[in-house]
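Shapes recur. One chain:

:::
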Amino acid sequence: MTWDIAQKKLENDILNVSSEVSDLELRLEEALNEIRDLRAKLSSLEGTVSDLDLRVEHLGENS
């Protein structure tokens, strides 16, 4: 393999890796957004559970 061919192959490999890294960065950003959304939903559910606990306590006091 001549140096020119080896250099072209290396350049092509670098472009492929760069493209894969960009793709992985996008997927990671999407995953992080999904995690943020799930955390927000969990926080909302925790608030709902806390409210229900208070209502049950209140009902217990009134019985």
Notes: The chain has one helix and no strands.
